[in-house]
Amino acid sequence: MAYFLVRIAVNALAVAITVALMPSIQLAPDVDNRLITILVYLVLGGLFGLINAFIRPLVLLITGSLVIWTMGLFTFLINGLLFYLLSYLAPILMVISYPGILSIIIAGAIMAVTVTILEGVFGLDSPVIDGAGRSKFYWRWFGLLPKDRRNRIVDNLRLMQVYATIRRYGIDLIVGATPLAGFRRSMQRIIYRDKEIVTEENAPRMVRLMLQDLGPTYVKLGQMIASRSEILPPEWEIELNKLQSEVAPFPYEEAERIIDSELGAPPQEVFSTFADEPFAAASMAQVYQASLISGEDVVVKVQRPDIDVTVRGDLNVMRDVVATLEKRAKWARNLGLGGMVAEFAENVTEELDYQIEAYNARRLKSMMSEFDYVSIPAIYGSYCTSKVITMDFMQGVKMTRVEEMDAAGIDRQELARKLIRAMNKQVLLDGFFHGDPHPGNVLVNLDTGQIVFLDLGMMGQMTDEQRMALFDIIWSLKFGESRDLTNVLLRLSTRYKEFDEKDLNRDVDRLVQRHVVYAEGTPDLSAVVQEALNLLYKYGLQLDRTLTIALKSLMQTEELVRTLAPGLSFLNVAVEEVQGVILDQINSDSIYEGVKQRGIRTAKNLVVNWPKWQRAAGRWAEQLESGSFSIQLDTEDLNNNIDRVNQSLTRSVRSIIVGLLLIGMLIGSAIVSLAPLQNLRFLDFLPYDVFILIFIISALLAFGYVVYSLWSAWRRKDS
Questions:
Q1: Using CB atoms within 10 A of its CB, is residue 609 exposed (0-12), middle (13-18) or buried (19+)?
Q2: 618-636, pLDDT tens digit by residue?
């Protein structure tokens, strides 16, 4: 009740301020009685609250893409519409003397800004901690729709929710840093007496809670940021690392429903035992301990309910925002935001399908089989679907819990070397590697000392050329070969602008000298890579995204190594260990097998392609005998160029025609509006205001078309 009373009072005060600032708006009953005036404002405040609660979401649900396309400017029109509806629904209370579109937009903007400020001061729409973890009922309905195409309603609904959440936390952070923070906290205790609200003034914690409130997509984004500890202040690193474990679980009933739907029976019938409480809760799933009827101890990972719908909506919104930014801002194109979002979306989408994770686990287990100190959980395929996966229960602690390792007598130096050796084989030799080896995904078995890799939904895969290029980068850094490093970076990057390669080589040499050759202590791979990426951005270069994932994986590995053995140089050991693995791989048996496989492959290609080569040789012989020899040219590129020229000419002709039509409308409507109607008897059935309206519309269309043409020309030149 307190919330609604404060809400009406805030809306009423906002209406009063808007009326005071806009001369064209006035209260209809122009009375001097102060009490009646207050009552009128309260009624208008309550009416605006209803409009804002029901009409605004409906409009945003339909026009979300316009909000993104206009970079938020369309919200001014929405605010103007809401304010116009207020005056339209209460004409006996408030009148707009000059209801022009500009005055209505200005009034709506004043109203929106005033309401936002007052909400912040009075603590309305504060962030509330909800530990239930339940999915909204309507997401299940949306989940029944086809997933092979976009659903704009889902995307716009997620856009509304994300905007509202960021707005709530943002206002709380801003007001919390002002002298009004005390008054806001007092009002929050009154308004939300039965709810747990976020009252922390600690920005890192607020951001972490906001990411959890936004949902799995943004928790995953926060986890990726947390993995870049070299660019984060310590308090931010500590808080964001909590996203790996401190995530609100969803109810057991939801897990039971999902297992029943996916495996055909409730967990009590499928498994011999199944825990009621989750063993762990993560951003996209939670894990339960269980045992199979055959006796094996397992863990069952159950996907969070309905997140496939919300995650896809989030990713679509991200793509739209980035696409709009790249169209309008050169810095966004140079930064390669589209590639980053595409990479993030691909990884997150793959994590939604646990059949892919099951395949990843089986493949990585096979590749790591030669290392007895590495353990990958076995997968039980008959208990796996796209939303449920069952695997061996693996004992272990996070690699950050060094005290427990010391108590168990584990040699952390040797463990760090084994970790580097395992990751080097994955990344540099196999080209199939764990894409997110943060502490929650890499455990240590205290009894056996084995390294346990978990959560294999995000994996990276590289070609032979990419693997060799990455090894070249590590080798160049290890031995301070700045020119070789520059060459490999240029070879692996896409160029967006021209620059002097001598300047780039000079900056790369300065980087290598400072961070590697004359570094204080052990060289820091993370710092080197981060500064190298900054240099690439400075010179308009974008590194291949697969290599970016690989470098990120090695940087996370270095962070684990730094925790296990602070004095150990990751670069030095990485080169040593990869040399050792390569030497182990190069022996007479492996060389013989490699040559044999290549010979078999070459012979197979000869046999498969022999009929084609035979037919081609026959045609050439016939042409030589007849004295005519024809040459076939590939004109695909020429055709493409002609098509581009035709499209350009078509756009130009279309622009000329549209421009002439607009000029004709503008001149014609101007002449008609200025001519006496008695001289235009064939039009005397139309009101005179119609011609004025046509003239105004023509003028606006002509002006808009000129602005659009200039903008398009500038954008083509800029790109």
A1: exposed
A2: 666 666 666 655 555 554 5
Q: Cα–Cα distances in Å, from 358 out to 176, 453, 459, 466, 535? A: 46, 13, 12, 25, 38
Look-up of token digits 């996916």: 262
Let me know if 436 is a catalytic residue: yes
Of 92-101, 206-215, 279-288, least confident by mean pLDDT is 92-101
The pLDDT tens digits for 392-448 are 999 899 888 999 999 999 999 999 999 999 998 998 888 899 988 888 889 999 999
For the entire predicted model, the pTM comes to 0.72
Instruction: Find tokens 């449920």 and name the residue.
Output: 388
Q: What tokens were used for 346?
A: 């691909």
Whose structure tokens read 């629904």? 89
Spatial separation of the C-alpha atoms in residues 312 and 316, rounded to whole Å: 6
Helices vs. strands in the chain: H and E counts, helices first: 27, 15
* Residue (of 330, 336, 331, 329) closest to 547 by Cα position: 336
Say which of 306, 320, 436, 524 is annotated catalytic.
Answer: 436
Residues 6+ apart with CB under 8 A from 38: 12
**Do 354 and 389 touch, CB atoms closer than 8 A?**
yes
Q: DSSP 3-state assignment of 493?
A: strand
Here the tokens at position 586 are 């190069």
Distance between CA atoms of 200 and 197, rounded to whole angstroms? 9
Radius of gyration of the chain (CA): 33
Place of tokens 């039509």: 661
**Which helix (H) or strand (E) is 470 found in, with range?**
helix 464-478
**pLDDT tens-digit map of 373-390:** 999 999 999 999 999 999
